[in-house]
Amino acid sequence: MKIFVLLSRIPWPLEKGDKLRAYNQIKQLAAGNEIILCALKTDPKADKQAAFKALQPYCRSVNFIDLSGIGIGLNLIRAWLSGKPLQTGYFYNASAARKIHKLIKQHQPDVLYGQLLRVAEYIRHEKLPKALDYQDILSKGMQRRFEIAPWFLKPFFKMEYTRLMHYEAAVFNDFELKTIISLPDKILIPHPDKDKILVVPNGVDHDFFKPIETTKKFDLVFTGNMAYPPNVNAAEYLALEILPLVREKFPEITLLIAGATPDKKVKALASDRVIVSGWMDDIRMAYAESKVFIAPMRIGTGLQNKLLEAMSMLLPSVTTALANGALGAVDGEELIVGNNEQELADAVIFLLSEKEKADEIAKKGYDFVHRNFDWKASTNLLEASLKEISKK
Predict the structure, then answer these.
(1) Is the pLDDT of residue 128 over 90?
(2) Is 290 helix (H, G, I), strand (E, B) or coil?
(3) Model pTM?
(4) Distance between CA 114 and CA 133 in Å, rounded?
(5) Which residues contact 70 (CB under 8 A, 6 or more apart)?
């Protein structure tokens, strides 16, 4: 099967969730299919040569389409005037659309596979079997940001939430196959036929993210792309509201906030006992050198890859009901769920105080992710469905 994969970002390096999902799906699909990759490039700092080197082994053809800053600005204006979501407008460009159509005509793929609503406009009217990976429900994520936004930003977030919700429904019938990352996200898609959406969970590379014996330098760790608003919000919540409660029991507690491109709000959290690392060449060391992992997510959607990685590396983990909704781990056995800052702080205190119980939760969490999250198994679901629509 020849699969044309269209992405809103170059899936390298793997510092963002959509990149991680795309890269691993391409890697798995390439084992028995021919991959034609087309990725939009909006980051002027992106290293196309390094990305090509990483992706070329899995793709018959690798194509990057540059979107200029000026062009993006005009695209946003057009989206604003047309009533489309700004997230879609940001990534849509008429010149890029012509190039994508030309590539499709040139390669004659059996099926088109687009990741995220951001690329739907490019392929929704192509006369070929098509699949759209919603991945997350973007409208709900925007609604959650609206709920905590300062008053002067609320009108913007409310408008984008409404537009995204309408667009998620509008493109639904243009694609023969729709996929999403988790059941909670699927339930929230605003379409009467949402039950037809295929849940394709993320996996984790268990051969890479495995326990590493090393000295524990930090009590607590939180990882992720630290420019991503839900992670910025979680980092502030952790450092400013949860950590002070933990310090009542452990005054000397240390926290590592690790991940690429930390926002200025995240950098401002740094102190002698709160380390903001920025990009790490090997993110595994952030997990390995820490005693407890925490992901205090309050906004955002989808499955938290950081939880999969931490649990695969045998860390006892703490998170919120929001994040565990997509994960589905058993609270109190495979991780601990907290619903507010006091419950989250109590969970951290418990795991730091009760090493035997922490080790037991870590082991059960490790077994849980090994049973349920595997890139090969999840991509096999996707591949089978792509084959089915390609034959229609």
Answers:
(1) yes
(2) strand
(3) 0.92
(4) 6
(5) none
